[in-house]
Structures are given as C-alpha cells and as structure tokens.
C-alpha cells in the first residue's frame, strides 16, 4: 500500500502540507478507545535517536545514554500522553524531510523487567508514533513532535539538539 510505504520510509517527501497534530486535539480523538500502554507499567526508559544531522549525514545516528524514569506519577503521565494520541488518519501524506530524529520509550513493570510496550516517536517527518505492545505492532499514531517535547519536559531531560 502506498501510505504504508510512505510512512515506513519516514515520510521523506518535501512538505506540501505539514502533518502534525496537537496533543489537546488528540485527547478528544482517542477518548473513546481503551488505554494502549498496559496499566502495570512503572518504569520508562527514554532513549534519544539523533538521526542523520548528528551523525555527519550518515543514516542510523547513534543513541545517547538512555534515561530511566521510575517516578510513578511521571511514568503514568507519559503513558497517558501516548494513550491520548489519535491513530494516523488514512491517506497519502507529503511531509517534511525525516532526519531520523526520534525518541524510543521502553515501558516495563520493573527496572530490568521485560518490555511491555515500546514506542518510537518521530520528531521530524510526519511525526508518526509506532507502538508495539506485548510484542504486537499497533496501528500508527499521530503527534510525535509534541509528544516528544512533552515527554522530555515531564522527565526533566535536556539533550542538545532536542
């Protein structure tokens, strides 16, 4: 399918229309759906992916040191942000160039425990959010740029370039 190919390629087309969604609108759009992040999560590890701009133009930029958050309230707020995101709408999108910059959020019940959910949230391109829960790939979500900014704020993280 053309949309899946475009999204999988990181929405690497030049911008004709900006494809972003606000978190305020996202909460309304998803209110009727059940939570995506399991209620048993108590730990989230946040890993930056810097993309090509930080890696001299080479694809697959290095990941910096991850930060693990164990504060119950903060983990719940971060999970709630993801639960509030709307699904990616159907259609074909022409998005700004994706540099590969993203956040990877790994949710666990305990530090060092098995992964319960993994989120890959694009900061560039279409700002798509890929989610895997219990090893199962979920539908793509929308709103990665604002999600990433809010996650970094909640966790008190300040990485240069983010």
Give the arrangement of secondary structure elements.
Elements: H1 2-8, H2 23-30, E1 43-49, E2 67-69, H3 72-83, E3 102-108, E4 115-122, E5 128-133, E6 136-137, E7 141-142, H4 144-155
Antiparallel strand pairs: 1-2, 1-3, 3-4, 4-5, 5-6, 5-7
Helix pairs in contact: 3-4
Describe the structure.
This protein has one domain. The model is unreliable at 1-32 and 57-63 (pLDDT under 50). The protein is globular and about 40 Å long. A hairpin with a 6-residue loop joins β3 and β4 (115-122). The protein has four helices and seven strands, in the order ααββαβββββα. With 162 residues, the chain is an alpha+beta fold. Strands 1, 2, 3, 4, 5, 6 and 7 form a seven-stranded antiparallel beta sheet that branches. It has helices at 2-8, 23-30, 72-83, 144-155; strands spanning 43-49, 67-69, 102-108, 115-122, 128-133, 136-137, 141-142. 24% of the residues lie in helices and 22% in strands.
Order of helices and strands: HHEEHEEEEEH
Number of separate structural domains: 1
The separation of the N and C termini measures: 32 Å
Gyration radius from CA atoms, angstroms: 15 Å
The parts where pLDDT drops under 50 for at least 5 residues are 1-32, 57-63
Strand content: 15-25%
Helix-strand makeup class? alpha+beta
Task: Report the strand count.
Answer: 7
- Summarize model confidence as the mean pLDDT: 77
Please count the helical segments: 4
Fraction of residues in H or I helices = 10-25%
Shape, please? globular
Largest sheet: 7 strands, antiparallel
């Amino acid at each position: 399918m053309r949309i899946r190919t475009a999204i999988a390629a990181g929405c690497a087309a030049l911008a004709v229309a900006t494809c972003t969604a606000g978190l305020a609108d996202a909460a309304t759009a998803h209110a009727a759906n059940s939570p995506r992040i399991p209620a048993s999560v108590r730990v989230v590890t946040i890993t930056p992916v810097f993309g090509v701009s930080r890696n001299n133009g080479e694809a697959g930029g290095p990941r910096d040191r991850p930060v693990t958050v164990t504060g119950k309230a903060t983990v719940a707020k971060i999970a709630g942000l993801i639960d509030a995101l709307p699904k990616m709408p159907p259609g074909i999108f022409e998005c700004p160039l994706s540099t590969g910059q993203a956040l990877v959020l790994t949710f666990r019940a305990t530090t060092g425990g098995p992964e319960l959910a993994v989120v890959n949230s694009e900061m560039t391109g279409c700002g798509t959010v890929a989610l895997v829960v219990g090893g199962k790939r979920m539908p793509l979500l929308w709103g990665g740029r604002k999600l990433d900014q809010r996650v970094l704020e909640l966790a008190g993280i300040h990485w240069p370039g983010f």
